[in-house]
User: What shape does this take?
Amino acid sequence: MSRRGSDKSSALLALTSSALLLPAYQGARADAPPEFMEAGMRYSKYEEDNTQGKKTFGGSSQRYDIDAAQFHLLAPVADNWAFALDVQWEDMSGASPWFVGESASGEPKVIMSGASIEDTRTEVSVTTRYYYDRGNAGVNYVRSDEDDYDSNALALDGAFNSSDGLTTYGGALSFSADDIEPTQGSVPTNTLKNDKDISSAWIGVSRIISTRSLLRFGLSFTYRDGFLTDPYKLNDNRPDERKEWTISTGYRHFFDAPNAALHADYRYFDDDWGVGSHTLDLAWYQNLGDLTQLIPYARYYSQGQADFFGNLVDLSDRYYSQDYRLSSFGAITVGLRLRQELGNWVVNLSGERYRTDESWGVYNGDESPALVDYWRYSFGLDYIFR
Assistant: This one.
């Protein structure tokens, strides 16, 4: 093994040694503090396909369009501290599925809310992290404001390395308090004001198993309590608590000849609503020289429907929902990312396509006429102050 290949392998392993974290928090890595301050901006465009006419009763078929702008700042503080500030602005417009009815032929068809929903969201995240000899600990606070939704979240995490430096152990806790006050007057809502709380815990371990390979494993539990019904769905009444479990594992391997790394991840999800899912992620990190990286990736997702989901529901039942996000379906995502270093600047470009179909899943269930397909693009520019 050449010294150059060994250095590149070690660098890739270091970059990918962080463990899986709680969904809402970018977190623990038992690395050294950042050497230089970094700042960056990113713009993202999210576009849902219009609902097919044969699946609607008429009216607007338009779905959501979302424009998002993000700012990121990461700075070392003294010798062992780091500070991060992330700000995101989102502007959303379009329509969402309101309810599902039965056509004259007996087929379920969706009624859209009309192209009436407009919303903006601002999120501010502040993180401080302390690094010690074999690990680090961090605190993160997130404030999110929308026209109809406010959230405050706090997360604590930590990680430490084994004495031989080959194993990283990590853990995290998070809590959020959310207030809901629907504002879209053109569509009747099923609450005027309500709230919910979300608590999560995660533990994980990653292990360098060779100079070329790394394995990681994580477990998480999430408890949701409060108003969990979608206020903008007509036929929707859900339990007021939800317990979720996830098991995740990942594998990284660096290949000398192509100067590239394979990332493979799997996640299993289960909850007490009857929803289960499998997620498989594959990505190929291809180095093109020392300054360019091309990353094609693909994701497969399969979900089983909630116990109380149905395209046509009985309103006398205790719980019911026509929300397509609780239905059975399969989804495939394919995308491409490009990372280019230009001196102290780093350019990031990405684009992906997401498609859904009930027949692509491994679970049985009824296909919702409201399943969504979308495109997403992003452009980012970062500067390293070195």
